[in-house]
């Protein structure tokens, strides 16, 4: 038996009747911004009780809790990869990047859902804010990437084992009642998340509660992606900007106005850098004794404590100093990861063709 849909309800197909640029199932189309301070062009809003916002980050009316990005800092990629790369492997890497890179319309879809979800969640938590984070905003997102959301309901930490699970369970009940959300699933982990799918855009979302370190890392990786997009940080060549500094997500100052240009002395091609990355982890890095630390811009001895001892892969989280690779806890999976580095290096050195390890042609044709 079916029932007539009320006027205030929406169906998945409502969006098809909307003109481009007009309000859709989520209402008004918001501006899409991301995580760096903007110029002082608009007066700052007063802080909302229970959720302060970083000075210098002004939230336009449409954006709610979206972080702000200076788009002009992101270098554009020329249409022809030959402009940047001469060798075949480098050209393939650039072509694959261009084919898979997240587009503005992908970001706008995620932002529309974030803005609508924030309205819905504020019925439960009036002073909360939902932030987009992760690959969606840090510069590493692809067209098929899911979206990470961080619900900030108060200053300070939330007990992830009890409070966060309870909050997410309340939100899951809320999502079950929303016509544009499907498959809400609570995942109990060290940082519990609520997984769900937006029917309109087809985007998968992961929502956490007060996991502020994820927002901090969005800032961190975005900054690193701006400064050098070819990921030289895999060779630990980044400046140690976090050493002896504790960063408060609510107190992010604007950077200096006049920064002299940085000229890299590195002359390696993208292909050479990628081969060097594979070689380093296949043959040179000591997995048994070392941990990877971007914070210290170096490979450091493993700490002799429970969290690090007897772990197969150790990658230090630069802010809370935990092991971000703790999920690799089975030797068979660790051996598979190391074998992939070794075999990929062998194939690339032999054929100098990215298709030997990745479906480049098929991926580009799909796009």
TrEMBL record:
InterPro entries recorded = MTPAP-like_central, NT_sf, PAP_assoc
Task: Locate the region Disordered.
Answer: 1-28
Compartments annotated for it: namely: Cytoplasm
One Gene Ontology CC term in the entry:
cytoplasm
Residue span(s) of domain Poly(A) RNA polymerase mitochondrial-like central palm: 89-225
- Which prosthetic group or cofactor does it need? Mn(2+); Mg(2+)
Example of a GO MF term: ATP binding
Task: Give all residue intervals belonging to the PAP-associated domain.
Answer: 269-323
Alphabetic keyword roster: ATP-binding, Cytoplasm, Magnesium, Manganese, Metal-binding, mRNA processing, Nucleotide-binding, Transferase
A GO biological process held by the record: mRNA processing
Tell me the PANTHER family matching this sequence: POLY A POLYMERASE CID PAP -RELATED, POLY(A) RNA POLYMERASE GLD2
Query: Could you tell me what this protein is called?
Result: polynucleotide adenylyltransferase
* Highest classification ranks of the organism: Eukaryota, Metazoa, Chordata, Craniata, Vertebrata
> Which gene specifies this protein's sequence?
TENT2
């Amino acid at each position: 038996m079916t029932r007539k849909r009320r006027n205030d309800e929406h169906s998945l197909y409502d969006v098809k009747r909307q003109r481009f640029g007009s309000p859709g199932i989520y209402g008004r189309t918001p501006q899409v911004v991301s995580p760096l301070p903007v110029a002082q062009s608009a007066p700052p809003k007063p802080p909302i009780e229970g959720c302060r916002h970083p000075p210098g980050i002004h939230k336009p009316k449409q954006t709610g809790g979206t972080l702000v990005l200076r788009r002009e800092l992101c270098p554009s990629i020329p249409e022809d990869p030959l402009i940047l790369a001469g060798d075949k492997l480098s050209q393939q890497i650039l072509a694959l990047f261009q084919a898979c890179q997240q587009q503005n319309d992908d970001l706008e879809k995620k932002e529309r859902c974030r803005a609508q979800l924030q309205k819905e969640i504020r019925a439960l938590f009036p002073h909360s804010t939902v932030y987009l984070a992760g690959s969606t905003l840090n510069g590493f997102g692809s067209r098929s990437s899911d979206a990470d959301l961080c619900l900030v309901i108060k200053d300070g930490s939330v007990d992830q084992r009890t409070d966060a699970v309870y909050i997410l369970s309340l939100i899951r009940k809320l999502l079950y009642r929303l016509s544009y959300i499907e498959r809400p699933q609570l995942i109990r982990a060290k940082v519990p998340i609520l997984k769900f799918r937006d029917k309109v855009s087809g985007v998968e979302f992961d929502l956490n509660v007060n996991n502020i370190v994820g927002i901090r890392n969005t800032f961190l990786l975005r900054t690193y992606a701006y400064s050098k997009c070819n990921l030289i940080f895999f060779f630990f060549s980044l400046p140690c900007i976090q050493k002896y500094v504790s960063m408060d997500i609510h107190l992010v100052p604007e950077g200096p106005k006049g920064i002299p240009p940085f000229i890299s002395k590195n002359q390696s091609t993208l292909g050479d850098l990628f081969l060097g990355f594979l070689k380093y982890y296949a043959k040179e890095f000591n997995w048994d004794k070392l941990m990877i630390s971007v914070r210290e811009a170096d490979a450091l001895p493993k700490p002799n404590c429970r969290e690090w001892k007897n772990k197969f892969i150790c990658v230090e989280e630069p802010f809370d100093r935990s092991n971000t690779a703790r999920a690799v806890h089975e030797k068979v999976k660790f051996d598979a990861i190391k074998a992939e580095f070794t075999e990929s290096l062998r194939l690339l050195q032999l054929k100098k063709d990215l298709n030997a390890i990745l479906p480049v042609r098929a991926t580009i044709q799909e796009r």
